[in-house]
Design goal:
This protein is mainly α and 277 residues long. It contains 14 helices and no strands. Helix 7 runs antiparallel to helix 8. It starts with a helix and ends in a 12-residue tail after the last helix.
Length: 277
Amino acid sequence: MDPFEVRMQFLALLRRLNASQQSIQRVVGFAVKYFPGCGEDLWDCIVEECQKGTINSRINILYFLDTLCETCLLVKSHSKGQDRDTNLYVNFVTRDLGKIVENVVPKGRQGLPNLVSTKQILQSWRSKRVIDPQTVGEVLSSLNERQSELSTSTSTSSHTHHSHASSSHVPLSRTEIFKRIEEDRERHKRLRERRWVQPITHNAQASSSSAAAANPPLASFMPLTDPRDGAQELTIDIEFENEWETTSEWNEDDVEAATEETELCFPAEGEGPMELE
């Protein structure tokens, strides 16, 4: 199949993409199959459709990219030789992540339907190290700033401004709304299923160990570690980093809680022992 034919078939698949796993896997398989000769061209098709598609089709493309990145890293983990040095489409996603998110969640009220789902995908990528956490963090920060700006402008705007904004925003039809509800249900179900999957690193030493044989890898994710650590970070280290990032700093509430626990466990002289129910 020549490159032009590959491009046309891929565009047709993208335009028929929906939230079902069968549809997503069909497009992912096609993209991975023709990456060696047409990878850059196929990526341009993805960016183009993300710019031109409807608000519903754009979020479908983002969920497609989620599965595509995981598949690419799985392919890499099973490759040998020079093929192990390439991340396939993951490099393109990392490079153009800001542009993709800006298209999926356009500025203004038009992008609100895709905001929450986009943040969930980005947080999943960051916690599982699919993409460099720093890159994802920068995009998430820009989304949060945009959301706060929109909330502020909405609360302080006048009735005239509301009328102008509503007239410039094209609402979804009844059919599109019901279709979006069904697709959101399918996407969130899939996201909940994958939320329990912990990141697992891949390296030559780990793959030859008995521990790796007992726990086969699920996917190849990027560890958050110092350059000197290389690919030797353990899964439990990545899990610790994820928990550490979501833990708040030590404050007065923590001091009070620790004091109460100490008094319960070690009562003062003259007081009775702690009652156990």
